[in-house]
Specification:
The protein is mainly α. The chain has one helix and no strands. It starts with 7 loop residues before the first helix and ends in a 28-residue tail after the last helix. The mean pLDDT is about 75.
């Protein structure tokens, strides 16, 4: 396993030193924060190809408007309100 050019023994050593320096409570918080940043980085990296493909399609095109859903009439309502008494 090679993580950023660091092998498994070196990674274990770094984690042990970090645990001794930061303590178990702060280590959990730091790992949680690191996970959040990595997740955001992955989302941003996944969005880059989509943005590049949109840029190549043309910048003057506007997206088509979204159609609104018209709610179906309820059973008690009349179908044509202009007719009848």
């Amino acid at each position: 396993m090679n993580f950023f050019g660091i092998g498994f023994p070196e990674l274990v050593f770094i984690l042990i030193v970090a645990l001794l320096v930061m303590g178990p409570n702060r280590m959990v918080g730091a790992a949680r924060t690191f996970g959040k940043y990595m997740r955001e980085l992955q989302r941003a990296a996944a969005e880059v190809p989509r943005l590049l493909s949109l840029e190549g399609e043309g910048e003057n095109q506007t997206p088509s408007p979204q159609r609104q859903q018209i709610p179906k009439q309820q059973a008690g309502e009349r179908e044509n309100p202009d007719s009848g008494a």
